[in-house]
């Protein structure tokens, strides 16, 4: 008989009168807080919100969840109350962080800084994410949150945020593909991103961002002779004209070179390998910095050397020589990568990419 009594489920005790009073008062105060501005003055709404906030501090989770779900739909809900509920356990905060219309950017940035990963993910997936909120979410370095922001068509990225994400993509290739698809990505950022990407992403960058310089060349056509005749050379003008110029090879360097041309250098490299002297000669004849030349030679893929070959007018055969001379075990794959780029990139666009890389390195304090 005792065993039979123990097997019968016991009904939960009825809520204490104090708990019922708290729940009833909280609902009544929420009714007032949710009234339109035409029905309740701002001062009274704030006062009621303060009382409600005090009640919710020690209220049970179920009650806090009900109030949070209701306030999330109100355009005039008190921001302070929303912020506190938005930092609550995610089961309670979810409607607030996911869709509350009255939550300000400041409130969401505070939640992103202090609350947990699920809160940040919900913020990143909101229908709209402002530039300042996107910056705060990305600054945490959480790859999942950053991925959610980049996948959100309603998110807006400031250029400073894109710069930061380009740097992050060096360690997280999955971010690179998402960045390439963003409208905020500028050519300069994309060409920096190039070095952190795999072959498919590199081709996407070259197809989308390797622009022609025809309009620049037309605009600066009469500046070249004027600058060359000047006794007082302007270094900034010279650097800009070097970026715009149609000629990639250094003719004076070729006249002084014992190998006569870049083709001669490539053929010597094919026989002797990348010695220090040949690297220097290759950089000089290509009119690029030694740092950039080394980076292209040592890169894991064949695409940079394809850009160099196309920009300088080397043949496919000479380009293959440069790739093979690296002596890598994955040389066949690198040659295949290089040929795909070489065959699809125009000379002008290849020069644009090469000039940009060289310009960035030349401006670097460490160069």
Automatic annotation (TrEMBL):
Official protein name in the record: DUF2336 domain-containing protein
């Amino acid at each position: 008989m005792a065993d039979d009594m123990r097997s019968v489920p016991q009904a939960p005790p009825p809520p204490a009168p104090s708990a019922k009073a708290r729940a009833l008062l909280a609902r009544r105060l929420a009714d007032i807080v949710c009234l339109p501005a035409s029905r309740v003055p701002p001062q009274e709404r704030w006062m009621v919100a303060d009382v409600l906030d005090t009640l919710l501090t020690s209220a049970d989770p179920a009650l806090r969840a009900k109030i949070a779900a209701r306030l999330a739909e109100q355009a005039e809900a008190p921001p302070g109350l929303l912020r506190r509920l938005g930092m609550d356990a995610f089961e309670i905060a979810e409607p607030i962080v996911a869709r509350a219309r009255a939550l300000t950017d400041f409130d969401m940035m505070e939640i992103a800084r202090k609350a947990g990963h699920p809160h940040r993910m919900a913020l990143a997936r909101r229908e709209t994410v402002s530039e300042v909120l996107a910056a705060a979410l990305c600054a945490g370095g959480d790859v999942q949150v950053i991925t959610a922001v980049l996948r959100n068509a309603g998110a807006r990225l400031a250029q400073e945020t894109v710069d930061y994400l380009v740097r992050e993509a060096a360690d997280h290739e999955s971010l690179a593909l998402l960045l390439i698809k963003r409208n905020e990505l500028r050519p300069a950022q994309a060409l920096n991103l190039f070095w952190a990407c795999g072959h498919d992403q590199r081709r996407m960058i070259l197809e989308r961002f390797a622009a022609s310089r025809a309009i620049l060349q037309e605009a600066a056509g009469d500046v070249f002779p004027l600058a060359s005749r000047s006794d007082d050379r302007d270094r900034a003008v010279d650097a800009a004209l070097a970026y715009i110029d149609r000629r990639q090879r250094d003719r004076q360097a070729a006249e002084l070179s014992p190998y006569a041309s870049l083709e001669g250098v490539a053929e010597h490299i094919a026989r002797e390998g990348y010695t220090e002297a040949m690297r220097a000669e290759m950089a000089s004849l290509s009119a690029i910095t030694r740092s950039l030349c080394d980076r292209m030679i040592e890169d894991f893929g064949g695409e940079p050397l394809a850009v160099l070959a196309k920009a300088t007018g080397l043949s496919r055969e000479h380009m293959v020589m440069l790739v093979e001379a690296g002596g890598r075990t994955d040389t066949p794959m690198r040659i295949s990568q290089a040929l795909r780029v070489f065959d699809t990139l125009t000379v002008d666009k290849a020069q644009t990419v090469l000039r940009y890389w060289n310009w960035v390195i030349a401006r670097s304090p460490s160069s």
